[in-house]
Amino acid sequence: MKVAVLGATGLVGREMLKVLEQRNFPVTELVPLASERSAGKTLEFQGAEHTVHAVGDDSFEGVNVALFSAGGSASKRWAPVAVAAGAVVIDNSSVWRMDPKVPLVVPEVNPGDIKEHNGIISNPNCTTIQAVVALYPLHLKFGLNYVAYSTYQSVSGTGTDAMLTLESGSRSVLDGREPATQIVYPHPIAFDLLPHIGSFDSDGMTEEEWKMVRESRKIMHLPELKISCTAVRVPVFKGHGETIIAKFDNPITPEEAREILKSAPGVVVQDDPASSDYPRPRYCENKDPVFVGRIRKDMGRRNALSMWVVSDNVRKGAALNAVQIAEML
Ligand SMILES: NC(=O)c1ccc[n+]([C@@H]2O[C@H](COP(=O)([O-])OP(=O)(O)OC[C@H]3O[C@@H](n4cnc5c(N)ncnc54)[C@H](OP(=O)(O)O)[C@@H]3O)[C@@H](O)[C@H]2O)c1
């Protein structure tokens, strides 16, 4: 297949190239695309150097699959061009996710939705992907009726500049200086926590929190599911953590949940707190699965569990999920 990657020089784009290579995706021709800024740079893929081109009107001629990770405005501008040229676009931005004509897919949860596509398939928000991979198998057996998310999201979720910001800010603080003025977040992220991902609405909810609510409902086909969410950016480079409190229609025990999750697709149960064994972002880095631990009864509600879910946001939260969709296509 002729595969284009728009945003190939970015954090997600580079990971996409790695995942395509590692999974032996049948790429006969690679078209790495970015903005004018990166035109002429080279990227290595399958042992050869590939020149990056600035995306343009004729970038998608003959392309079968176009993986997009260049932000919302580039997706809006170029996805229709790619589709008109005959490509199927798998898009990492949020612009098409809630469009009823665009499937929003996590292959472990709703692979059947892929066939409804009209040229564009959306890759969900990273935090939502790992949540639904863990929740959906439990829903199938016990019936979800309420979810409360609290997220602990690493800076890589905001891209390359945010990783550099955390690195330089941490050095400044350790050297006794104030971190430099922020361009990525409203406050320095080094050694701090920011409960602010995306802008706030009049109810005090952030964009990221709404993504978790709306995208979880769409992917699991549970439009009425009650969900609350608090999303927090933390000074971790890679890997998102989240606590999930889930309430079910039917009684459920932690043992039953562990048994189901042990055989669930894409999940690894890592749950031996007595040996200090539970999922951690650094351990999950560059790994494919969604790791689940600290599975226990929620003490405040009937038929409810609490769990701790961690995954590599650049990998399963973006690049891997997109390539899995391409494989299913
Ligand atoms: N990081 C994550 O965990 C994650 C997870 C899910 C979804 N996403 C989404 O994936 C997208 C990229 O994220 P990232 O973390 O890879 O960001 P990044 O590291 O900042 O990379 C951005 C990429 O997009 C390209 N780009 C930017 N503006 C462009 C334009 N107008 N035309 C063409 N190319 C353009 C950049 O090219 P240049 O080199 O030319 O600047 C670069 O290749 C975003 O939509 C983000 O929301 C990210």
What does this structure look like?
The chain has 329 residues and is of the alpha/beta class. The protein is built from 8 helices and 14 strands. The protein has helices spanning 11-22, 72-84, 126-142, 160-174, 207-220, 254-262, 281-284, 315-328; strands spanning 2-6, 29-34, 42-45, 48-51, 53-54, 65-68, 88-91, 120-122, 144-153, 226-233, 240-248, 267-269, 290-297, 304-311. The protein has a 6-stranded parallel sheet with strand order 5-2-1-6-7-8, with helices on both faces. It has a 6-stranded mixed sheet with strand order 10-9-11-14-13-12. α1 packs across α8, α3 (126-142) packs across α5 (207-220) and α3 (126-142) crosses α8 (315-328). The longest helix has 17 residues, at 126-142. The radius of gyration is 20 Å and the shape is globular. The N and C termini lie close together (11 Å). Bound molecules: NADP nicotinamide-adenine-dinucleotide phosphate (NAP). NADP nicotinamide-adenine-dinucleotide phosphate binds at residues 7-13, 34-35, 37-38, 55, 69-71, 74, 92-93, 126, 156-157, 159-160, 313-314, 317-318.
Q: Report the order of strands and helices.
A: EHEEEEEHEEHEHHEEHEHEEH
Percent of residues in beta strands: 15-25%
**Shape type:** globular
Report the C-alpha radius of gyration, rounded. Answer: 20 Å
What's the tally of helices?
A: 8
Number of strands: 14
Largest sheet: 6 strands, parallel
pLDDT < 50 runs, ≥5 residues: none
Strand order of the largest sheet: 5-2-1-6-7-8
For the residues shown, what is the average pLDDT?
A: 97
Secondary-structure class? alpha/beta
Helix content: 25-40%
Bound molecules: NADP nicotinamide-adenine-dinucleotide phosphate
The CA-CA distance between the termini, in Å, is 11 Å
